[in-house]
Amino acid sequence: MTIDLILYASLPKFVPGSVAGIPITVQAPDQTTVGVVLSQAGIPDDMRLILLVNGLSATRDQELRENDRLAVFPTIAGG
Amino acid sequence: MEKMLRINMGADGGPKASSIPVGEYSGLAGRALTSALVSKEVPPLCHPLGAENKLVISPGMLSGSLAANSGRLSVGCKSPLTGGIKESNAGGMASQTLARLGYAAIVIEGKPSGDDLYTIFINKDGVNINVDNSLKGLGNYALVEKLKQQYSEKACYISIGPVGEMKLASASIACTDMECRPTRHAGRGGTGAVMGSKNVKAIILDDTGMGMRKPKDPDKFKEANKRWVDGLKKHPVTGEGLAAYGTNVLTNILNEAGGYPTHNFMWGRFENHTKISGETQAALETERGGNPTHGCHRGCVMRCSGIYMDKYGQYLTKQPEYETVWAHGGNCGIDDLDTIAMLDRLDDDYGIDTIEMGATIGVAMEAGLAKFGDGAAAINFVNQVGKGTDMGRILGSGAAVTGKVFGVERVPVVKGQSMPAYDPRAVHGIGVTYATSPMGADHTAGYAVGSNILGIGGKTDPLSPEGQIELSRNLQIATAAVDSTGMCLFIAFAVLDQPETFQALIDMINAFYGFNLTADDVAELGKSVLRNERAFNAAAGFTSAHDRLPGFFTRDALPPHNVKFKVTDAELDQVFNF
Ligand code: SF4
User: Fold this and answer.
1) Which of B137, B283, B513, B526 is most buried, judged by most C-beta within 10 A?
2) Which of B298-332 are b and which e, b meaning 16 or more Cβ less than 10 Å from the residue's Cβ?
3) What is the ipTM of this complex?
4) What CATH number corresponds to the domain at position B454?
5) Whole-prediction pTM value?
C-alpha cells in the first residue's frame, strides 16, 4: 500500500532530502503500523512525537491503510 | 513592591500622583492584583471610557528578580470591548522595570477635563506628569523614537498609538522590548482605549539606580531558580521548540488536526499553510539576516520571539506570533508572510490587537468588503483604522461591531471578543475556555490545546466533549495563578509535564517572600482570582447566557472532520463549580 508521510518542524533532518510539510510517498506491506513506517524512515524509536493519521490522533501501534496521510511532529507547542 | 502609585488624572488643578502603601492588596501582584482592584474599586456598571474606570498596571510576584521568565505584565480595567473585567498580559521590559522601581501597581484613575495629552515619567526619585500635545496622533514607533531623544534609550516605554487616542475597542497598549521597540502589547480587550480615555499617551519607566529585587532567602532562591531554569531547558518545548520556530510552529499541526480556522471559521484547513508556517518563517528570517530566536525581555530562557526583516534586509517587525500569522493569514486567506509581517508592524504602530484586527478583517471579507486572500485590501483596512476614517472606526471597534454593521452572522466572538487561532469544533477544550473565561474568547485563559492537540499535560480527544470541562477548569485556575507570578504562560508546558519544575516555581516564590505556599495554596490563589472576575462580570450584567459560543459552532459542521461543538450548556455551567 501507499502512505503519505509528512514530517514537520525538526524531523526532516532524519530523512535526507525531505522538506517540512511536503509528503514523502512510502510503500509498505498491508497492515504496517505507524511505528514501523517511522522506524524505516529513520526516526528514533524513543523520540516523543505527535502523530496524526488523516488528521486524527494516532499511536505507534496503529495499523495504516492504503492512502493514509501520516503527519509527524516532534513535541511542540506555542500559543 | 510594597507601594502603589495612584495617579488621579482628573484631580483639581491637574493630574496628581501619590505613592501609597499597597495596604489591603499586600501580597498580590499581576493578575491577582489587577482583578482584585478592579473588582473592588471599579463600579461594574460604569462606562469603560468614563472617569470611574481604572487602568491598573501590575508586574508579577517575581518580576524584577533574577527568576527566569518572570517579566510579564498585567494590565487590568473594565474592558471597552467586552464590558466585563479585563486582564491583558504583555511581555517586554515594563514588568521588570516597574517592579525594580518598587511599585506593585500603577493605578490610573479619573479623567482630565480638557484635551491635553500627558506623559508620565517615573524613576527612582519620583513621578513627573507632563502635558505634551506634540505627541498627538503619533504611531508607537515614532513616539518611542521621539521620547528616546528626550529621555533615555535605556528607559522602558508603555504607550498607545492613534487607535488608543481614538478610544476604539481594539486598541492595545504597547511595551518596549529589549531593543526599545514598541513590539510587546497588552493586546486584548481594548486596554489602549482606556489609557486613551485618560489622555495618557505614554508612561516612561527608568530604573537607573535601582537594583534587582532581593529575595528573603537568597540561597534558597538561587537554588530553586537553578532547578527552575534546568527544568525549562530540559523540556523539548521550552528548551528547544519555542526557540527554533517560535509559536508559529503551531500552524502546521492545527492545520493537520483540522482545527485551523480558515476564511472566517468556514473550514478547518488552509491549503497554503506551509507558506506561512513557523518552519518557513524561521528559515526566511535567518536567510534575510533577522533572527528566529529572541526573547521579549531580559531573563527569558525560552525565547519564542524573533526579528523579521523585509526583503531588503531591513528591520520590519518582531517575529509575528502564531495568533497574528493566523489572524491575518489563514483566517483571511492570505498566504504571504511579508504581507502578514507588514500587518503586524502596522498593528503595533497604530496600537491595535492583532487577533481582534485579523478576526475583524475576516468578518469584513465575509461581508464582501474585500475578497479572501486580498493582502492589499487587508493592509488598506488596517491603515483606515490607524487613520480613523469612518470605515476604520467601524473596523477598529472589533469583529462583533463590524459583523453587526455589515449584517454578518458568522462572527466568531464570545462576550464581544474575537476568538484566536483554534476552531472550537475541532478543539473542544479550547471551546470551553472561549465560552466561559471571564475575559471573553481568550486562548491563554485555559490553554486546552496543549492536552487536546499537543499531548502536553495529559491527552484528551479534541473532537469529543469528554473531559473538557474539567480540563478547562483546571487550566483556568492554574493560569490565573501563573498570570499573577509574572511568569510567561509558556512555562506551563514544562510545569504541566514535570512536577519537579512546578515545585521549583513554588519554592522560588516561597524563598522570595518567606512564604510556605503549597500547590493547593497556588490553586486557591487562582480560584480567588477567578471568583473576583466572575463577581465583577455578574454585577456588570453577565449571566450564564454569556458563557456560550455563537450558535453556528453547534449548528454548522466544520470540514475536514465535519464536526460540531458538542459540549452542552449544562456542562458549560459546571466550569466554575468551586
Ligand atoms: S517565551 Fe516568548 S512570550 Fe514568553 S517571555 Fe520569552 S519571548 Fe516573551
Assistant:
1) B526
2) ebbbbbbbbbbbeeeeeebbbbbbbbbbbbbbbbb
3) 0.97
4) 1.10.599.10
5) 0.98
